[in-house]
Amino acid sequence: MINSRRSFPSSDEIHSLRGRGVLYIVSGQHYVKAAIQSAKSVRKHSPHLGVHIYVDKESLQLLNDNDDSISSFGLIHSPHYRSKVDYLTKTPFERTLYLDSDTRICTPIDDLFDLLDRFDIALAHAHYRYHPKTMTMWKTDIPQCFPQFNGGVIVYRSTTEVFEFLESWRRAFHETSFEKDQVTLRELLWFGNLRIATLPPEYNLRSHKYLKIWDRFEAQPKILHFREFHEVETLHTTGLFGSLLQHLRSLMPLRLPRK
Fold first, then answer.
1. What is the pLDDT of residues 163-201, one digit of tens each?
2. 29 with 59: CB under 8 angstroms?
3. Phi and psi of 40, rounded to 5°?
4. Within 10 Å of residue 56's Cβ, how many Cβ atoms?
5. What is the spatial distance between Cα 193 and Cα 203, in angstroms, rounded to a whole number?
6. DSSP reduced 3-state for 26
7. Superfamily of domain 11-250 in the CATH hierarchy
8. pLDDT (tens digit, 9 = 90+) per residue, 58-98?
9. Which pairing describes strands 153-157 and 95-99: parallel, antiparallel, or unpaired?
10. Domain boundary assignment for the chain
11. How big is the chain by its Cα radius of gyration, in Å?
């Protein structure tokens, strides 16, 4: 049964939120371990940001064993494979960057939060835009040139309007049988009134091939979003992580000589 009671903060509670931070919503020790590694990459490149994580009860011990990469944490009640739709409105931050656990930050990401001076929410387009699951229609056939957005990297403001939108996404996900939450997200964004900023692909890099074809004068990777990052224990032994770092170093902008 769907809980129809409003699950997001009141206006007074929203006004009490402060600061900028990164949010993870993860259940299962396999994925929590990956999220901790992602949080470490946030700490490395943007150490002043807060990092909050929601986890299931069975994974709490992993946070106790963790270093200081996590600022605060909360408990997921009744976790499921898309618990994020239930907890996005429970962010402790005024401006939030939600990240999936299979992400890594490559450079400082402060400019993402500056987007929210003019926009309510920011996402990147889904990479596999013509996959049958990505082309699935929910209620309305809307133009293909307004494709699905990937739900693994979301920047958003803590406002009543945004939280009402996220609450509608939560209800839609639970009321439908879609495996992917992006199906309902796409149509809700299309019919909604939020100011949407579309992130360029370097802020949600989903394919290794771009690391091979981009040169240093093209886009600079900011956030890697590879499913291999869920395999924390095998990344280093297989050499994949080292290979990715080598590609990244070759893509970093040249240091211009001083005049």
1. 999 999 999 999 998 888 899 999 999 999 999 999 999
2. yes
3. -65, -35
4. 19
5. 24
6. coil
7. Spore Coat Polysaccharide Biosynthesis Protein SpsA; Chain A (3.90.550.10)
8. 998 888 776 688 999 999 998 888 899 999 999 999 999 99
9. antiparallel
10. 11-250
11. 18
